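Record type: monomer structure entry
Structure origin: computed from sequence
Chain ID: A
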Amino acid sequence: MSGDSFLASAQQIPSGAPARFRRAALGPLIYLVLALVLTAAVLVFPVSGYSLNLLMQASTYAVAVLGLTVVLGYAGQINLAQAAFFGLGAYSVALGTTTLGLSFWIALPLGAILAALAGAVLGLTSLRLGGHYLAMVTISFQMIVTLILTNWISVTHGPDGVPGIERPTLFGLSFSEGTRYLALCIAILCAVGYFVWHLRSTRLGRAMQAVRDNELAAGVTGVNTYLTKVLAFTVSALLGGLGGGLFAGGFTYISPDQFSFNESVVFLTMALLGGARSPFGTAIGTGLLILLPEWLRFLKLIYLAVYGAAVILIMVFMPEGIWGFVNKFWRKVRPSLAISLDHLAPLPLTLRTCNPDGSVILEVRALSKHFGGLKAVDNVDLKVAHNTVHALIGPNGSGKSTLLNVLSGIYRPTAGQIDLAQQDVSRLPTHQRAASGMGRTFQNIRLFAAMSILDNVKVGAERPGNAIAGGSKGLEQQALAALAFVGLAQRAGEAVGSLSYGHQRHVEIARALAGNPKVLLLDEPGAGLNHLEKDALVNLLQRLKGHGLTILIIDHDMNLVEQVADHITVLNFGRRIADGKPADVLRNPDVIAAYLGEVSAHGAT
């Protein structure tokens, strides 16, 4: 289960009759109480001098580091330019309140918006890259911003920085006094923390986590992976700019050296140290990196060495951060939640019984996919009828998986056309194919490993075009109904990695079913399953067939294919060599030759 399972476990409670998890109002209440307690503590027990500066730095830095929880912790995208966005927000407040004479309350949101726009532009131009390439782009952006802040003296005041930054006044209440401004920063930090925490359980948050865990699977379940990453980058930059604006007001003086690449590394370390996937971890990591050196100063000459060693040890022995370690421990000791399914509405698919009527729902015309001189799929024609199970078979290397990848949009066809429900989808990207009603599973199971079983299936249910009544409650019902259909609803709250291989296969199928697809593509669903698991899979496929779901299946197990298939198409070397009823196709001499390597009556080998 991803994110704050420690907190979420207290909020995900069975609601009795409808038998679903419900996030109670406990989360907002916790954040409200936390904000009130911390704010009141600062006002009742005021701090001053050096301690005030440390707390001011910790609270404003934490706002910016929460942005890394979104882009790195949720979406899995590296960002080494957070200090640049932090600087844009800081200079907007500094120059806005001094040079331009703007109100703090105007300059602060302008700075956050400027940082968000910069993040969006950077994301749009670079997020098709990944890994170290993306890291290099963000580092370059950071360097550019630092150079501009240092050398554009007529605007930024150059190395001298900007002094005399004004603190705000709100409804006649001045925040010029340090403890009042710190209380304001803490209140904003709590509000931002709640936003980031809540984001994880929204549609966008689940899409981000899906992209992080398996971008390819996210795409075929209907997630626009590119847009999701851009939005994550934009939100991260916005929070960076907000934190920077608060920082400028807190210290009333800024200079370019405060927003260098070194600070981006510090921000990243804070997120990783506390646990990048949780806003609580982010806050812990920020506080530790700022306060730990002060706590160790009594060691005098060696305190920096001890500080560095402590950080290294935490990172080595707690790779998911401090909060991740606590969260993992809590998942082991907390009792599993019981789920009542007494009043669970059935999956819409199970309410219908359809028979084949001869009409075609998926048609492939002269489809080809070439990789240089290799013709993986070569001029293939294929018709899949409504409410049937159509098997695609052939020896290894015959082009079956490539054909499925072309159908689902992972590969673009070299030539040919694909019609789904009489709509040409040949050039649509994966998420738009999913929106058109094409579901998909993979030979090598692709689940969202850090998410719960239920959240995995919710991502599938949220595909564009899948009408779900009742908002979030209806979404949960749909996901639980899909899990109930495959026999796993009682384990919905568990981590998906706790399941056996066969049950993980069922979760992947449930994820596709929750999206109510028109056609379900199954790539080697029997791969890696033992005899009992294959029997369970055959039973599941026969039930799906009985409810009228159209299935295109690839599998090497001829026993499985014969039990479920209404029609078989055979590929060899990328070309169709047979097509028809199972009994006829499996006796075809060309098919026998393709599998056994014998010479057929037509001389094929």
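Annotation 1: Confidence is low (pLDDT under 50) at residues 1-25, 599-605.
Annotation 2: DSSP finds 24 helices and 14 strands in the chain.
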